[in-house]
Amino acid sequence: MPDLTTSIGNTTFQNPVFVASGTFGYGLENPDLVDVSKFGAIVTKSITRHPREGNPPPRIVETPSGMINSIGLANIGVEKYVREMVPNYEKIGVPIIMNIAGSVEEEYCEILDIVESVSSNIVGYEINISCPNVKEGGIEFGVDPLLTEALTSALRKRTEKLLILKLSPNVTDIRVIANAAVNGGADSVSAINTVYGMSIDSMARKSEIYTTYGGLSGPAIKPIGLACVHKVFNAVDCPIIGIGGITDSADAIEYLLAGASAIQVGTANYRNPAAGLSIVEGMESYCSKHKISHITDLIGKVKTHE
Ligand code: SIN
Question: Which of 34, 43, 191, 243 could in theory staple to 97 by disulfide, Cβ–Cβ 3.0 to 4.6 A?
Fold first, then answer.
């Protein structure tokens, strides 16, 4: 039986298949649909300091090989999250990574302080500095290395749990932002969040998303995600969590070969919430077939032509 365990910072996961933020709610919504205990981890939807309604509809549209969303960080806010969600994590038997979003540094810090003040089995935090759908914060951090480093180091002082910075592809050079995150004390970066996109209904002559632009995800962005992971892998010394258009185990293996230590399944969950479980099985078969004893032996092993 191949060994699928992978480590990010001080945490070892039973396999490298996580479900991405925004696709499995707070981690507690899908127990009848899928055996979540078989995932490597669940990343929660983004939690903010106060509850948010999110953007007005329409806020999701299907596009060729993907979808565009502009949810606008709708969520229950950290206080309700700590009261109503966190205590239930003990029962579900899968590591939880809490995704945090804010509009200014103090807000991210306050959220982390509130969660750290209660006992929980959250194993780490994914810091959303890459949401393309809000007017303040989010991607403002993710396009600026100085802001990224300052935010990461402020958060690092507040927790010993895993600190993962979620990066945007909507930048000139993702390596610069990844490097800033690591200089600030991040254990890992996850790449990529969605790519700016637009969809137009030619009959109505109207944008199909209320905010005009949104974040494109799904198979359409896999080549962008792979390139970002490979670039960061070759430039920055930290484990990378690959995201972007992963639908099956072949996609997941490609991300590992590009340099990812783990992957997140996002948009594919909307079609099949058990997609991640098929990916775990497919990874096992791939390793057996190719006589790979430990999945991590594949990390960064893509052959290039130069
Ligand atoms: C959203 O809530 O608009 C999506 C979150 C994100 O892209 O980070």
Answer: 43
Let me know if 131 is a catalytic residue.
yes
How far is it, in rounded angstroms, from Cα 282 to Cα 297?
16
Judged on CB neighbours under 10 Å (0-12, 13-18, 19+), 140 is middle
Atom 6 of ligand 1 has which residue's CA nearest to it? Answer: 131
Other CB atoms within a 10 A radius of the CB of residue 106 amount to 11
Asked if residue 91 belongs to a domain, the reply is yes
pTM of the model: 0.98
Residue 305 forms part of a structural domain: no
Atom 8 (ligand 1) nearest CA: 131
Q: Are 131 and 71 in contact (CB under 8 A)?
A: no
Helix, strand, or coil here: 294? strand
Would you place residue 305 in the very low, low, confident or very high pLDDT band (cuts 50, 70, 90)? Answer: very high
Distance 100 CA to ligand 1 centre (A): 11
Angle at which helices 145-156 and 105-116 cross, to 10°: 20
Kindly report which listed range (33-37, 114-118, 261-265) carries the lowest average pLDDT score.
Answer: 33-37
Query: Which residues' Cβ are closer than 6 Å to ligand 1?
Result: 22, 46, 69-73, 128, 130-133, 193-194, 215
Check if the beta carbon of residue 72 is closer than 8 Å to that of residue 133.
yes
Does residue 306 belong to any structural domain of this protein?
no
Q: Count up the domains in the chain and report the number.
A: 1
State how beta strands 96-101 and 41-47 pair. parallel
